[in-house]
Write a structure and sequence with these properties.
Blueprint (H helix, E strand, L loop, with lengths): L9 E6 L3 H14 L3 E6 L2 H12 L9 E4 L8 H9 L9 E5 L4 H9 L4 E4 L4 H17 L6
Parallel strand pairs: 1-2, 1-3, 3-4, 4-5
Helix pairs in contact: 1-5
């Protein structure tokens, strides 16, 4: 569970074109991490445009953490990483890749482009529960995020 001394909820942006994966994460996150507000987007190109537009607004949406699939239509997760890491408004946001690919060249490229972690998509619900508990432990309980 999130540190009770932290008064603000965490805003997490999930970018995944798989509607079923996103719905499962959304349902589990609501139960496991009730102090997290999850925003789900399925179109990576639209996400880039929206984030860049909102970054110019004083009260625009800025996620505390980004979870992103790599293989998406229109803009790959690699392109999203490259673009967001080159923008000062997003450099400090932890960006976690969530992929079903274990190809070493993709893992290496994701880290080269600024991913903070490369997480394998679980194959069952218990795996997703463990993944979310790990994200909670590593990013919300013990890490201090730039806000």
């Amino acid at each position: 569970m999130i540190d009770p001394t932290d008064a603000k909820l965490y805003d997490v942006l999930l970018v995944d074109d798989s509607i079923s994966d996103a719905e499962l994460l959304q349902e589990l996150m609501a139960r496991i991490l009730p102090d997290v507000r999850l925003r789900v987007e399925h179109d990576s190109l639209q996400v880039l445009q929206d984030l860049q537009r909102e970054a110019r607004l004083s009260d625009g949406f800025r996620p505390d953490l980004l979870l992103m699939d790599l293989h998406m239509p229109r803009k790959s997760g690699f392109e999203v990483l490259r673009k967001l890491r080159s923008d000062a408004a997003f450099k400090s946001i932890p960006m976690l890749v969530l992929s079903d690919s274990a190809r070493p060249e993709e893992i290496g490229l994701a880290y080269d482009l600024g991913a903070n972690a490369y997480l394998m998509k679980p194959t069952d619900i218990q795996g997703y529960v463990e993944l979310l508990q790990s994200v909670d432990q590593n990013w919300f309980r013990f890490s201090k995020l730039s806000r």
